[in-house]
Amino acid sequence: MDYIIAFLVGGVVCALVQILMEKTKLMPGRIMVLLVVSGAILSFVGVFEPLKEAVGAGVSVPLLGFGHILMKGVKEAIDQEGFMGLFTGGFKAAAVGCSAALIFGLLAAFLFKPKLKR
Fold first, then answer.
1. CA angle 36, 42, 47 (to 5 degrees)
2. Disulfide engineering: 60 pairs with which of 65, 101, 104, 105, CB 3.0-4.6 Å?
3. Displacement of CA 114 from its chain's centroid (Å)
């Protein structure tokens, strides 16, 4: 049952994004930023973790989850380092994921020789 709920929540998030893409003039990059910021705001107000506990992985779709990770890193860094943690926390928390994305993207580019669309 938990898998079904997680699937439904993830599907609702994806459906909302699809509606935004089709019914507004927002470009995909702006919608991605909107999702990351939404995840950070949900984390900041303390809703993300309880929502994740209730529905499972459906709420932690990549971009919402990335915003949550950034905000979680900022909160922890502020607790440890004070004001300077505001600037360093997000980078420390998301460094592994960003590095992995860059490395795997580079490997995929070498292996598959992508071509630009015309």
1. 150
2. 65
3. 25
Is the Cα dihedral 30, 33, 35, 38 positive or negative? negative
Find the domain containing 61 and state its range. 2-112
CB 92 within 8 A of CB 77: yes
In a domain, 118, yes or no: no
**4 vs 27: CA distance, rounded Å:** 30
Number of domains in the chain: 1
Q: Are 62 and 98 in contact (CB under 8 A)?
A: no
Work out the angle at residue 56's Cα, subtended by the Cα atoms of residues 50 and 58, and round it to the nearest 5 degrees: 110
- Two tokens, residue 55: 């529905």
What tens digit of pLDDT does each residue of 5-51 get?
A: 666 777 788 888 889 889 998 888 898 899 889 889 988 999 888 88
